[in-house]
Amino acid sequence: MLWQRVKDVLSRKLSSSDMNLWVEPLQCSLAEEGSLALVGPDPYFCSWVKNNYFPHIGEALRELGQEGLSLRISVAEGREAHCLLPAPEKKQEQLRLPSMPMARSSVRTLHPRYTFAEFMVGDSNALAYSACEAIANGDSSLSPCLFIEAGTGLGKSHLTHAVAHHITGHSPGTRLHYVTSQQLTAEMVRNLKNNTMEQFKDKYHHQCDVLLMEDVQSLSGKTKTQSELAEALDVLMECGKRVIFTGSVPPRSIPDLDAGIRSRLSSGLITTINPPDRRTRALIIERKARNNKLQLSDEIVEFLADRLQGDIRRVESAIVGLRAKSSLLKARPSLDMVKEIIAGIVGHRNELSAIMVRDFIAEQYNVSVDELQSKSRKKSVAFPRQVSMYLARKLTEEALAEIGRAFNRDHSTVVHSIRVITEAVARNGSIRGQVEHLATRLRNQS
User: Fold this and answer.
1) Which of 31, 120, 335, 397 is spaced 20 to 30 A from 211 at the CA atom?
2) Which CATH class is domain 354-445?
3) Where are the alpha helices (DSSP H) in 145-244?
4) Does domain 278-346 have CATH number 1.10.1160.10?
5) Structure pTM?
């Protein structure tokens, strides 16, 4: 049988302990033309064999003249994970299997829903998502070093948790260390006090395949931590290990940061997660409502998407509060119920202003505020500018001159814009529908 011949070849190349622990438990489920399928007792076992013994098996196949065979491995159906070592009868030093790394992963508690499948991708975060997914899959086409800059509650922790979930689930033999910069500093201080810095260095220099570090801006002013991290990064990057940093500001803006560590943090891909646009916010709201078994009408989703901008944690707070209130009242969520919940999170909005109308319309028509304030007469800019002025006059108490200042225009331009949109609304049903819809949404924000 082919698998037996492969094992005979492997026995001449591997130690007896490696053969007994990692090769003998394997069974050949299929050995047909062009394919050799193996099964192992559990996912960890299969992952370790694939990462460490497939090259030896492939070499054995070549010696046997079977170079073209494809290799695959899976967990045996209906089998429990085998205990490879007997449980010690008394407390003793932890035993280690032959060929296993001395250090294990050190991963902080992961949020169960912070996975790639639960992350809502939009224009504001697509690059960060793709880069994290590539690093999690070991894709060598991108830089193995990534820095994610994002404000509070925009998803940087979600992505790093997703990377950790993916790696621990698909490659459990990978030595992954997931820490915040504060945790790294505290760990280093403990090792300094205990005179065990060699253990610290060994862990992050030689027993680390993936390093995830959050809140890098907290390294500011901590010269000893910066020095140790720079030394570790030199070793990891030279060996092509995967590294992901997150911070609320880019490396160039972190104060009291050594030039050397700043350079190392900037050596790979730097990506920014911006606040999600309205469409992405609506998708996030729908997903979180579904996770909480809450049915929301389109009107409520639109209202929440308009009011809850920026920090996504406010969305979670609103959904949890809405679920609790609807459950307590034994009633389906209503707009009045939502407004009451929102008032407790973001407070009551101030009266609408021309600036608020301008910024809202800019987002809806996907133009920048600078473009609305520019002298551009392109239709893609001029029409949103005119709509903004029309709605500002209709929905606010501000004078024409005040409205004009929001767009770097005088009052005569505002009068002209109001006349243009008034005529367009009267003769064009499509424009009338657009303007009425925008006006309704702006009123809901007040």
Assistant:
1) 120
2) mainly alpha
3) 156-170, 181-193, 197-205, 223-238
4) no
5) 0.62
